[in-house]
Every structure is written in C-alpha cells, then in structure tokens.
Amino acid sequence: MVDSTPPPPTTPPPPAFPPPEVPTPPRRHRTSAIVIGSAAAVIAAIVTTGVVVAQSTNDDDKPAGAAASSVPDADAVSPVKEPDPEPTYAEVDADSFSIDLRTTARQCFGSAGCNVTVEPELTYLGSSGDLDPDAVYEITYEIHGDESGPVIQTAELTNQTSLSYRPSLISTASASTTELSVEITDIQQG
What we know:
The protein contains one helix and seven strands.
C-alpha cells in the first residue's frame, strides 16, 4: 500500500528580528472639537437664560398693555445728591475766652521788688467744635502790675486746642505788691 497522504507541511523558521511595523494612518481626535462645541452650547444657554429672566423681570413691573420705552419713569430717577453744606463756626471775640496767669518763676529782691515769669492760661467758653480747625486765632492780652506799665502779648490758638505763646517777665515795684491781672483786648482770626 502506498501512502497517498501528502507529507506534513514544514513551517519555515521564525525570522531573527520582529517584522517592521506598518504605520497606521493618524486618527483625528474629535474629543477637543466635541468639548469646544459643548462649552459653546452651555455658554449660549446661560446667556439666553439670563436675557429671558431679565426681560421677564422687567416686564413684571409694567402693566400688560405697556410698551417698552426708552424714557425712564419719573419714579425711577434717583435724587441728585446735594453737596454737603460748608460747616459754620462760631464768631469768636474777647468774651469767648477767659484768661488767667500762671506763675512759673519768681525772684524777689527785698524792698526792690520781684521779677515774676507768667504764662497765660486760656479757656474757650464754648465747645471746641465751634472753632474752625483750620483757622489761626491771634489772641492779644494785656498784663497789668508791671512797674513800667502794661505788658501786651499775643498768643496763637491753632487746631482748636494748640496754644503758642512767649512767657512774660514782669517786674513789680515791691515784694508786697505782686498783684498781677490780665485781660483779653483783641482776637483776630486768620
């Protein structure tokens, strides 16, 4: 008997290196186009919803038959804010203050008299808010009791509370007559 079956096929030996890769054509990514399109649709929907809501809110305020007008309603006009009025301050004169003298130094020479250094103590008789904070008040005062006659000095009041002055040196005729007095004679506002 003769064998009629063909011999088994022989398989060739595998190659020593892998077969080259066949490049596949690049695929277009549609993902970014879909994302951009979806974002545009969402933005358009939000804007349209906002316009519809705003339109319906404005329409609720008007009667059903009223047409839109470009002229504002009289009630809708906001009042004009008037500027704050200029603050007013009190008129200041010699009667607006009281003045006393404070003795800061005294040197007596027996029967020859004394040298006395004094400073003014000024009190405003009203509220300090009545005084103009930007004004300078020149307060002239006269001290009596100096052996050569009255001594005239000027103090400056600024910022409603700051008093600038020079101490006054007064010479009395005797140690027993050291009675000093003071009075405001003039006030100038600058």
